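FORM 12-B: Structure-to-Sequence Request
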């Protein structure tokens, strides 16, 4: 019950791009958190995007993809359980990051003022922790997950099962700064790779892609310290 070659490749592309978006987002949060010129609102948006999307990514693997594989290949259970333990370690770092108060003070015009030096230091330290965890998870995925997951997708998961999994992931992705996902994907992959991921998006979302890309570009410029 082998998967078609193109679907096998697509699974690898989607996994790699998902990991790379997480690496880009965590690295940017570390950098932006160290610049006092970046507004609190921009930092909070990036932080919230990162926290919910990282959680969603590994929770969908644990809850949906791993059981499919184990049902077809019980001998993979131990290795997949080890990958889930890595996800649990990441959760503690995400909890720390999510707990940081990024509301900031506001002036009479409603604009966020700079965070205190202490708050920015706490944000940066938490973001560094998450970045390092993500880096380790990505490395572990490359060294541990691919030799398990890719053969399992070829041998045990049908194209219909993979399509259902991918659609469930899309349908349950939290609607938190989704435009940033589009922006990071554009940076992480080739146009063809990104298109292959976005082609199954709901039509209303696909119609909004130009606006989402424009908004992402503007917000990423702010986070990187360039508003031009």
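FORM 12-B RESPONSE
SEQUENCE OUT:
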């Amino acid at each position: 019950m082998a998967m078609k070659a193109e679907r096998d490749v697509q699974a690898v592309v989607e996994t790699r791009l998902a990991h790379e978006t997480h690496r880009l987002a965590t690295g940017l949060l570390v950098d932006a958190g160290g610049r006092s010129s970046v507004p609190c609102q921009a930092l909070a948006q990036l932080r919230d995007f990162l926290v919910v999307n990282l959680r969603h990514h590994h929770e969908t693997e644990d809850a949906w993809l791993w059981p499919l594989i184990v049902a077809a290949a019980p001998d993979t259970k131990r290795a997949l359980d080890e990958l889930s333990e890595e996800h649990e370690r990441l959760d503690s770092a995400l909890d720390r990051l999510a707990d940081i108060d990024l509301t900031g003070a506001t002036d009479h015009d409603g604009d966020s003022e700079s965070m205190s030096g202490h708050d920015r230091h706490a944000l940066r330290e938490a973001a560094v922790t998450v970045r390092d965890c993500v880096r380790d998870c990505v490395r572990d995925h490359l060294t541990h997950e691919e030799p398990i997951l890719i053969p399992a997708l070829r041998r045990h998961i049908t194209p219909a099962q993979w399509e259902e999994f991918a659609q469930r992931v899309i349908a349950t992705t939290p609607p938190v700064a989704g435009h940033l996902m589009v922006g990071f994907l554009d940076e992480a992959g080739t146009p063809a790779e990104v298109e292959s991921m976005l082609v199954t998006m709901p039509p209303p979302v696909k119609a909004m892609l130009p606006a989402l890309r424009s908004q992402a570009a503007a917000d990423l410029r702010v986070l990187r310290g360039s508003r031009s």
